[in-house]
Design a protein that fits this description.
rod-shaped; DNA-binding transcription factor activity; sequence-specific DNA binding; WH-like_DNA-bd_sf; WH_DNA-bd_sf; Arc Repressor Mutant, subunit A; Heat shock factor protein HSF30
């Protein structure tokens, strides 16, 4: 459909005599308001002239619709504003941005504004005019769809980041509870650490020898560990364990 749009001109061609007559005519209110809005330095963050001064660019359509349009045109409909631009022969020069141009809408050239007039339908060109309008409407719809797709991708990225942050937060919140549970168990049984150390050493020794310890021997080692803890004063042994109760080597 984009190739079909190339065949349509910006507006109806005029002769030098017609241009002189139009130059003496009044400026259309829509054109005058748009020119003033774009030229106002106070609105540069929302709408401003392009680098070559022959286009204007709406940088923030949302703010443009909420604040500028009601101030100049008594409505908030951005699509209606774009349709009005098309009616006066403006064209969208960038498919990814809301940037428009007209050969007589130039920065600092207010004397040319009378030449920006509504497009008139030529006799027998009804079908072509309808095709042009469909082409322009289709381009506007495609631009809106691309903008929505970009917003959705940004939203998905934010949601993924929030889920990752939630997982990290939950993991951080669970660590103090695990630590308190282990300390409570250690307070009830001060010999727990020593027994666990001896059991770990025994397990490593058995792995090296390729054999398994007998249950009776395991119980004897555990009893000796308790006796050793009591012989040292009955106090709690040093804490060499992680939250999960494994020895740091």
């Amino acid at each position: 459909m984009g190739s079909e749009c190339k065949g349509y001109g910006v507006g109806v061609a005029t002769s030098p005599q017609q241009e002189q007559e139009q130059a003496g005519a009044a400026v259309a209110p829509f054109v005058a308001k748009t020119f003033h809005m774009v030229s106002d330095p106070a609105t540069d963050a929302v709408v401003r002239w392009g680098g070559a001064s022959n286009t204007f660019h709406v940088l923030d359509p949302a703010t443009f619709s909420d604040y500028l349009l009601p101030s100049y045109f008594k409505h908030r409909n951005f699509a209606s504003f774009v349709r009005q631009l098309n009616t006066y022969g403006f064209r969208k020069v960038d498919t990814d941005r809301w940037e428009f141009a007209h050969e007589s809408f130039l920065r600092g050239q207010a004397r040319l504004l009378p030449l920006v007039v509504r497009k008139r339908k030529k006799a027998g060109a009804g079908a072509g005019g309808g095709g042009r309008e469909l082409c322009e409407a289709g381009e506007e719809v495609r631009g809106t769809i691309r903008a929505v797709q970009r917003l959705r991708e940004q939203q998905r990225g934010v949601e993924d980041e929030l889920r990752a942050m939630d997982r990290r937060l939950r993991a951080a919140e669970s660590r103090p509870a695990q630590m308190m549970a282990f300390l409570a168990k250690l307070a009830d049984d001060p010999g727990l650490v020593l027994r666990a150390m001896l059991a770990k050493e025994e397990e490593l020794a058995l792995i090296d020898k390729g054999s398994e310890a007998q249950p009776a021997k395991r119980r004897r080692i555990g009893a000796e560990a308790v006796d050793l803890a009591h012989s040292r004063g009955g106090g709690a042994v040093p804490f060499p364990f992680s939250v999960l109760g494994q020895v740091f080597y």
